[in-house]
Amino acid sequence: MIRWLRSLIGWTEERSGAIAMVAPIMTHRVPRDAKWWYVFGSATLMFFTIQIVSGILLATLYAPSAAEAYLSLVYIDQQVPMGWLLRALHAWSSNAMVLMVVVHMSQVFLHASFKYPRELTWMVGVLLLLCTLALAFTGQIMRWDQDAYWGLGIGASIVDRVPVFGNQLRNIMLGGPIIGGATLSRFFALHVFVLPGLTIALVGLHLALILKGGISEMPQVGQVVTPETYRKEYEARVHKTGVPFFPDAAQRDMVFCGLSLIVVMALAVWCGPVGPSGVPDPTVINANPRPDAAFLWIFAAMALLPPQIETFLLLASPPLIVLGLLAMPLLANRGERAPTRRPIAVIAFTTIAVAIAALSWLGVTSPWSPVMDAWTSVPTPVNMVKQLTPLQMQGALVVQYQQCRNCHALDGTGGMRGPELKNVGARLSWDQLVRQVQQGGGNMPAYGKTLSSAQTTALAAFLQSCRTDGVGPATIPGALERAATPDQPPVAVPPVSQ
Amino acid sequence: MSRTFLLVASLVVVTCGACGQIPLQQSASTSEAPVVTWKGLYAQNCSGCHGADGSIGGARPLRDASYLASVSRNGLIDIVRRGQGVLMPAMDVSQGGAISSEQIAQLVDGMMSDWGQGGKPHVVAWAGELGSPQAGHAVYAATCQSCHGLPDGVAAGTRGSVTDPNYLRLVSNQALRSAVIFGRSDLGGLCNGPYPGQPASRTLSSSEVADVVAFLASKRPNFGGHTP
Asked: What is the ipTM, given to two decimal places?
């Protein structure tokens, strides 16, 4: 049997030369100290491979049409034997791939492995990061649930803000002015054909560049990168102290990949597939859409952007960040690699990492999404109801009926998207309350066309009553303030004494 | 040894996955459990306006045995199904609401049996025709004015005006009638007596209720004949 196998291999090798081609790659010498820090790239590649295999299997079951996509996921989850596990593996492996890419890039950045002669390797890595994130985003769209729908809506509204070409770009993105059947088709094409193809090509290029430039050594204090002499010094060191990639370094890669796979499998088994979260029906407003883990920090950052510079930052930040990442090895391709000698880089990395972690946490726990059923299920606090006049009481009902509670809290209960209203009567005068209700402002919609004058008056009367004990209503000094009801004539507020 | 362990661990995980069912919390078919009790329906759909336990809120308290003993079941179901006035929304799915007719019946039956226990029907019918606005003016002056102020006057009274045109544009005649008959004891106001300056035994007769509601309705601005 073994003899027969050997002869088969020999026969194939004589004609293809495959082993002769691969053997130098497998046994190329790598630095001896390239230990556990260097396993993350291989793990990323492994998860990408899992994505391709599980993705192909899912593609045989998934119906990429707007009418059937959601139901086909339910079908895969509930009818196909082990279908849910396949979906779970695809989803958790996707998260793991994003995580591994980020960890791998962090390691490369902290060890300054992007310096000469590996600038191109880093740049291709940046493109691979973008491909990975694009795969994750388009994968979220494949679920065609509420998260997908609202995620697309937010993406389209960002694209729409591009000056001059916004509408055209949005139409290209969505396949029309609105989210529809064409939208899913083009995102399916991106997710299944374009992005994986591009990623495979870039992975090939990335690996070729790694072989060409060699795996970087662990950074040593005083071992400065000088482009003029680096390659000769590196080759001399690797030739002297290096070890073959296979089996030495490859062993660690395999152990780490195996352990990562067990963790991902365990997550897939115990946590199950991600979504679908709910039917992607725009009329179902009782949704609490959240992006997948990789985009939570962007979700949080966007929610916290100051409205005045929101558009500029939304449009300018992504290209600036990508350009910065691409240009970094060109700007700093020589010098010390040891983190202890690169304090600015370490501080910058730590700051960014903490910011992303904090924003992701906020993205999970944030109260920014409205509580869509607060208007019928969160009572007006009893202490705020007592002592109200009949008109103010109707105003309290307007707050519920017009779903103000979905975004605004009263005494700590209700939505947290807008300001708490418990003390709003002490902050805004009657005229300011009416103006805010009618014209909106900040992120609040205008209700001028929605509310009758009676509703507006009742609402303003209630809001003006929302004050802590002993605090008078807000007034504008010198202005003629209208009273809450026609029963009370306008009262001139005395000007502030100079 | 370690390789054997890894192999066994992998096999265990995969086998668990192969034998296991889809984790329930992630299954699309088990999203949110439907509300099955009338109290659950109340908490989800009514408590926003009528209060957490139905005893005090922006809108009329429903935990009012006298009120629940006086209203007709079908009348209450109709109010819940189709809404009332400007600010009581229609709750039936067919009217754009969120609950079915069966759930509305379940809700009303639950309220009437649990919260209506021991309540005696009011001597004045909970629903009725409007009376005379002129006669109602006199009833208002005698029984309402001390708390709610002069109609068309500058004084709103200690409890706030009920002749305010904005208020009247938001409440229906039925809501006014219910307020006059059953009052808002939850807020400390007693529209159904005793009335300041009047004998303690003074109550409003059926015709007086109809008259005072007619008087209040006459104060409502009429925009294109629309009545809430």
From this structure: 0.84
